[in-house]
Amino acid sequence: MKVKSTNYKIRRCLLYVVLLLLTAAMLVPFAWMLSASLKLDKDVFIFPIRWIPQHPRWQNYLDIWTKIPLLTFVTNTMKITLIVTTLQLLTSSFAAYAFAKLKFRYKDTLFMAYIATIAVPWQVYMVPQFMMMRNFGLNDSHLAIIFLQAFSAFGVFMMRQFYQGIPDELCEAARIDGMSEYQIYAKIMLPLSKPALSTLTIFTFVNTWNDFLGPLIYLKTEAKKTLQLGLKMFISQYSSEYGLIMAASVLSLIPVLIVFLSLQKHFVEGVAATGVKG
Amino acid sequence: MAKTITESQKQEKITALQKEREAFSLKLRDAVGTRKRDSLIAKIEKIDEQIKKERTGERFTRQEKRNLIAYSFIAPNFIGFALFTLGPIIFAFVLAFMKWDGNSPMEFAGLKNFIDMFSNDRFRASFVNTIVYCLATVPLTLVSALGLAIVLNQKVKGKNFFRTVGFFPYVASLVAVAAVWNMLFSPMKSGPVNMLLYNLGVHAKSLPKWSADPNWVMFTIVLFSVWKNMGYYMVIYLAGLQGINGELYEAAGLDGCNAWQKFRYITWPQLQPTTFFVTIILTINCFKVYDIVYMLAGGSNGIVSSQAMVLVYHIYEEAFRNWNLGYASAVAMVLFLMVLVITLVQFRGEKKYAN
Fold first, then answer.
1. Nearest-neighbour CA in chain A from B240: distance (Å)
2. With 90 as the cut, is the pLDDT of residue B296 above it?
3. Where are the membrane-spanning stretches (chain A) (predicted)?
């Protein structure tokens, strides 16, 4: 018996060692980013790595705002992300309600249109999409980015899956009580679908915030660029200002970090649910 | 309700409808027990609704009203979706057979775009690179994600913390993370990773130049992809692991199975649907890769060399640098076909695993 317990202890220790090593592998780039963001450019590559700088250079975090129009980039990204997330949540939960709970003509045809496009990656139709937007006079505008992100089939699909799990009897009862479909949606379905809405929020938020290829194709004027685009531009222009680049990178991660940490339960559940169901 | 129909006209219509209804009900009598019955009943019900509509003078039947309400729910999303997704997709299929630079009128080109493609070195390079990237990334990510999930599925303290840490690279912005990665894997001798290798005894001259070296660039990209995305698949695997019945392990323990045997004969077979799904999603995502390559191998002007370029990059450069829109769409069709094949495999697999 005693042999087994020492064996067990060794196994536990090994397990924790493996875990710590893995955590280090995941975190080291972030730690290095934070540490380099507080250093002078010439100190960044000193070996052995000094993880905590002797004289933290907070100045980097101030300089970055004047070196590039960071505030403009942040405002642009905020604006786009907020509008896209709101539109996505409203329109897809609205449409999903009809697909899940109402009977109407061409329902299956319309839904097939959504399903079929999920299998088509955006990269396949980004070229014609750009040309159409240009025809509408939308190139180099935030509206283009908003339109191309806000009406995804994924949102409708996900919300519909969730609504289908809510018993029909609930809607029937409300109908008998004389509620209109709009009231049922607003007063019964929406409050019940908070978990699904949170999942959709965090996915849309992170995707829009981090999107790079879309803004790269559409936005040409500097004053209209998003944070990711501006950051990349800065990195290309001042490739040796390591401290500043890292400071800007840290700043660009903060909003996502906040959203992720506060909603991560839904994030993990969302991934797991879509993953298991397929 | 500004319809001005006289009473007699109204009556006429109603009698016409009633006649139609009678004709159908006669047919229905003959068709008892056949398949036609249901459709006949539906038709009769429809006529009943219409008669009711005529009698009461309302503009819509109840079913029409229901349809309209449903459409009002769908419309806000569907209009945007049709305009900005469905339309471009249809357009993409047409454009693949056209010659167009975006300004002059379109010309029909037949299969020329596809023929050009196979004689284009950059296309061939991008195609091969995409496949190589895929073949390297899919198994590596799969194994790391599964390993991570199994470790995290043990009874360990701070499980949630570790899960969060593992997942964070996936949500972190690519530009920022790639910037650090480029510095850590700097091709110079002073780059932190190279410095580490040097101190471990690698000769200064044989230190890899990572993304600046044609032979190492793909390796660097694969390594980065695995690191960035494995957290996502780990979460899927964790859900899969939690779905395995614990009694199976208890039984195996009683039979004297060791850890490896438990994995080999319980975990792995039980996780097969999850592994299948993860492989599908991973493969499709690998086909779509673009920004990772652009960030790591793109240099300051964003031009990717033929050792690292992938299909989506080829589409991008042909469309938005050379304005060969027709040709770019033809390449996009190749990408679409690749994804389609995988999706069809997925449908088959889903049927198999659903039983």
1. 7
2. no
3. 12-34, 80-99, 111-131, 143-163, 184-206, 242-263
